[in-house]
Amino acid sequence: MSGAGRRAALVAFGVALALLAFTTLELSLRLLGVGDERPFVTLETDAGPRVARAPSGNGERGDPTAAADRLACAPQKADGTLRVIVVGESTVAGFPFHGELSFARLLEWALRRAGVPTAVEVVNFGRSADSSDDVRAAAVAALALAPDALVVASGHNEFQASYVEPLRDGAFARLRTQWRALALVRAGQSREWRRALPSDARPAPLSVGEAAWLAPTEFARGVARYRDNLAAIGAAARAAGVPLLLMTPVENLAFAPCWSHFTRPLDGATRAAFRRGLESLESDARALLPESVLLPAAPLSIEGGAQLAAWRARAAALLAQDDGVARLAFLAARLAERAGDDAAARDLYRRALACDGYPNRAGPRLAAVVRELAARGDALLVDPEPLFAEGGGAAPGSALFLDYCHPTPEGTARLAESLVEPLLAALRTKLPALDDAASAALAAAARTALRAPAETWLAELGLTRARLAGRLAATGLDLFRVAEADLAADEPLALAGRAFEQALRIDGALVDAWLGRLAVAIVQGEVATALQIADNVWRSHPEALQKLDGLLPSFPRLRRRFEEQRFELRDGRLQRAG
Fold first, then answer.
1. pLDDT per position as a tens digit, 135-149
2. How far is CA 44 from CA 41, 48, 69, 108, in A?
3. Which end of the chain, N or C, is more open, meaning fewer C-beta atoms within 10 Å of its C-beta?
4. How far is the CA of 510 from the CAs of 501, 517, 542, in angstroms?
5. Residue 59's pLDDT is what?
6. Residue 363: what pLDDT?
7. b vs e for 332-356, b when ≥16 Cβ sit within 10 Å of the residue's Cβ?
8. What residues are paired with 119 via a beta bridge?
9. CA-CA distance, 241 to 245, in Å (whole number)?
């Protein structure tokens, strides 16, 4: 063999040896579970060991052993106790009231108050930002804790940016996914790092994108992944002899779409004109559409009604060009609602939800998967949507949401109510003392308890609206400080405004939340909204606006915008100079 041949052979041998070493190390790490995420952690408490959901990186769940909600349970179930385990994401976890209020806690309370003839514990193993992959791992692991029923609620996070790369077309996405799946790579890395995306993987900030953020083939993979995960949970539950209840995801119709895109083959010039027309209509319509959901719209004058009709006609003309643009459908829905045309508004809100091209809000399509699995006998169906849709209106159920999927306290009670009858059906063999009539009476009593005014059951749980709203207002203030520290960051400011509004949806008398929303309005240039909020605050709490004056020196961005918009505090009221 020539010298060149020997060198080539040595290189080949070295490569083979390196691959063998790499493969051996990778397999060894996998066998040892290095880099694997544990679904649960065991905590040592004064009452003995407790099992809890492994916390997410932001630590928002706090200490499960100190929470009023049942966020942990003993490894062994107490004799004579029925154990129901609920697994899912933030809606299960009780966001934004982690540790205090969740539908799992309300369900347990309602069953006990109704007189269920045995001890019942409803364990909350929800965790914010979990995908169905995470939910599957937690649900299967939870079966080892001897539940008498397993409840699974998943879907709101299925298409978050952090979870879509494995769905992408193209070799690079597949290689990157496989690389990040290696135990050698996962070892020592945080959950957040493993799911981080390159900056260029997020959608560009266009008013209307050229295409959906996920291609149809990519979206189909996501739906298939969701179906496979739920089916795997069903198979594991059947093998363990545990009844499975699957909940459909429900979402707020009256929530702005995340990503809009063209759905018809319009040429470049037409698309440019479409964008200009939509942006112009949004700007014009702002005069009649309230900038805050907290402020009631003024009655329409004759001139305002005529202007609104003209704007609806402009929206209809754009919809004729492309009725799949979610942002346009949502604007048309708001105009229809303002005009009192609830039927048209409902159809348009639903279209906006269905056409959202950044399909984090993919609830209707994922709910179909849940119904499919329940219809073939894999699980009992829990469908909260009819309870949220009661009362009708332009966007049925929207008043029961804080944002696009997280419920108000009243919405939390509706989620609990949707579980009452399916859960009692799943537990019938464990409740032999209940005949059909007694079961129906128990269910009716539990539903009645959950339909009582929220103050009634909040008091029995040791909670108040002010306490829940105060937590949200504090979150809003933290976000506002983040926005002050980074003047280029608009998202924290928008989130702060939403947090203050969520707090006020719970407790409309919380002055600090009103002042926080006022500060956001000033920074965002919402002059009319700022003046209206300030006037409302002044009428109910004449001294409160002095707090705003005290905030200005600590928040330079707020002070600068305050001065730019010629605001001033005069005689305790917010006014504009000149």
1. 999 999 999 999 999
2. 10, 6, 18, 24
3. C
4. 10, 11, 14
5. 47
6. 78
7. bbbbbbbbebeebbbebbbbbbbbb
8. 81
9. 13
DSSP assignment string, 211-224: S-SS-HHHHHHHHH
What are the CA-CA distances from residue 252 to residues 57, 155, 407, 536 (Å)? 27, 14, 9, 27
Decide if 388 contacts 397 (C-beta within 8 A): yes
DSSP string of 497-544, one letter each residue: HHHHHHHHHH-TT-HHHHHHHHHHHHHTT-HHHHHHHHHHHHHH-TTT
Local structure of 250: helix, strand or coil: coil
3 state SS of 380? strand
CATH number of 62-162+214-254+361-462: 3.40.50.1110
Contact of 266 with 404, CB cutoff 8 Å: no
Q: Can you list the positions of beta strands (E) in 167-298? A: 244-247
What is the DSSP-derived secondary structure letter of residue 553? G
Q: Which residue from 34, 16, 113 is spatially nearest to 413, judged by alpha carbons?
A: 113
Find the mean pLDDT for residues 372-384.
96
Other CB atoms within a 10 A radius of the CB of residue 304 amount to 15
Asked whether the domain spanning 465-576 has the same topology as the one spanning 62-162+214-254+361-462, the reply is: no
- Cα 425 from Cα 119, distance rounded (Å): 17
By C-alpha distance, which of 205, 214, 233 is closest to 134?
A: 233
Instruction: Tell me the longest C-alpha to C-alpha distance in the chain.
Output: 99
Written as six digits, the tokens of 256 are 């702005």
Asked if the model's pLDDT at residue 159 lies above 90, the reply is no
Under 8 Å between Cβ of 148 and 429: no
The CB-side HSE value for 162 (13 A sphere, CA atoms) comes to 14
Stretch among 62-66, 91-95, 258-262, 463-467 having the lowest mean pLDDT:
62-66
Tens-place pLDDT, residues 310-345 = 999 999 999 999 999 999 999 999 999 999 999 999
pLDDT of 203 above 80:
no
| pTM to 2 decimal places | 0.91
Handedness of CA 384, 386, 391, 394 (dihedral sign): positive
Domain range annotation of the chain: 62-162+214-254+361-462, 268-355, 465-576
Question: Pick from 466, 539, 477: which is nearest to 506 by CA?
Answer: 466
Tokens for 514, please give them: 């009103």
Interatomic CA distance for residues 335 and 297, integer angstroms: 12
pLDDT in tens, 421-430: 999 999 999 9
SS3 431: coil
CATH number of 465-576: 1.25.40.10
d(CA 578, CA 568): 10
SS (H, E, C) 390-419: CCCCCCCCHHHECCCCCECHHHHHHHHHHH
**pLDDT tier for residue 183 given thresholds of 50, 70 and 90:** low
Q: What does the H/E/C string look like for 55-89?
A: CCCCCCCCCHHHCCCCCEECCCCCCCEEEEEEEEC
pLDDT at site 1: 60
